[in-house]
Amino acid sequence: MSTLSRSNVFGTGPNPNRRNIILVRHGETQGNIGDRLQGQFDAPLTDKGVRQAQALSRRLANTDFNAVYASDLQRAVHTAQSILNNRSNIEIQLRPELRELHYGTYENTSWSVVQNEDPTFFKRFIEWETRPSAKYPGGESVTDLWQRVGNFANELLTNHSEEATILIVAHGGSLQALLAQFLALRITDQWHFHFDNTSVSIIKEHPMAPRVWQATLFNDTSHLESFNSHE
Amino acid sequence: MVRGCTLIPAHTADLLLIHVVCVKTWDVEDLTTIYLVRHGETEGNASNLAQGFSDVPLNDKGRAQAKLVGERLKNWHLNAIYSSDSQRAIQTAEPLLKLRPDFEIETTPDLREKNYGVCENYSWQQLRDEYPELFAKMLDVKTGSDTKFPEGESDREQSDRVAKFTDAVVEKHDDDETILFFGHGGSIRSAAAYLCKFRLEYKWRLQTDNASISAISSAPTWRDDGWRIERWNDTNHLSLAQLDLA
Prior knowledge:
The complex is a heterodimer.
Chain A: E1 19-25, H1 30-34, H2 47-59, E2 67-70, H3 74-84, E3 92-94, H4 111-117, H5 119-126, H6 142-159, E4 164-170, H7 172-182, E5 200-206, E6 209-220
Parallel strand pairs in A: 1-4, 2-3, 2-4
Antiparallel strand pairs in A: 1-5, 5-6
Helix pairs in contact in A: 2-3, 4-5, 6-7
Chain B: E1 32-38, H1 43-46, E2 49-50, H2 60-73, E3 80-84, H3 87-99, E4 105-108, E5 122-123, H4 124-130, H5 132-139, H6 155-172, E6 178-183, H7 185-195, E7 213-218, E8 227-234
Parallel strand pairs in B: 1-6, 3-4, 3-6
Antiparallel strand pairs in B: 1-7, 2-5, 7-8
Helix pairs in contact in B: 2-3, 4-5, 6-7
């Protein structure tokens, strides 16, 4: 259940204090290429990740932000710094609540390690019905992630109660949790949204209903079109 | 991402020897992709009317948007093109079909927008004024999916026909094929919500602009259960600004 309150019926009047939130996933890291359980392991951007962030910076050069938040892990911080490209009037607010899921003793290992060492837990994690409550030893469960990200979201909306454009730079898992809560989806629905490195997603409040959110753009990587060859 | 070698037995003079040839596979899984394009603008869109089954054409802006869609998609890997049989959808497909004459388009009423019955082409205001109870029911999450105007369809009925059609198309194509649907705001969102197993009312939390491109893909792996949203409401081809790429 989402921790963000929302009305179930559209409001009766226009919403003058519409907030826009731009969600960005950090650039590529070595762990992303190798598909490792990076979690809160503080991996840096690869050279390609740095270039991706620069391409994104050019794309967002003319967008004004009222506030910028980023996970305090370096891959997110450096992506955010790259986007802002020395803009002087805005600072990046670092938030550990935006970090990726903590994989506990399995941080910076791989899925096959988990599968070999604890096949029962591995099975619980891969089944979507049991995944939310599967807690990594020494780490978190997705429910924990959902909770901390939801607390951040509530605080964000309280701090920015008037019209604002807010940039958030974070991780695949934390962004899934954030998006799903803003859109008032179920916890299992979040895994249907796939965030690419430096992709741009935008959620906006409905013009007629405060606190009812819509995704007006999701996972856009057009700024990387010269990087990718599949199109 | 699956990278690996494919074993190809090569026939040689000595049939007992099988030559193993390593071929680099593409860096994609057996990915089924469905691109979903909403038709370009019509006069009714510009005035915010509930067009539904009404067979209205694109306006000038819509026709320009259709050309930009064609340009954007002209080199994309595609295996098949389907469209709602409403002319606004077909007209949006036309520029692309001209650029890719090797493709034929298959049209279907199953991808049409929701039928608003006697309220076709009503504005939001007219719906609210003439059918206040139904209007309120439509906006209420608990009853919205099953509300229909006289002689019209409910969201659920529309979604069921879109689901049936989508299932048949996915069934017909191989696991690694790319399919393109030209459709409408409601029908596109229904397809995504159905494949991602969302509750029907969640579809309204995704916006679909005129001539936007969205994409869902399926690569069932041990971690992903079926379909996922790859991109939603991409309208970069409609922007006048040039993207400055590396």
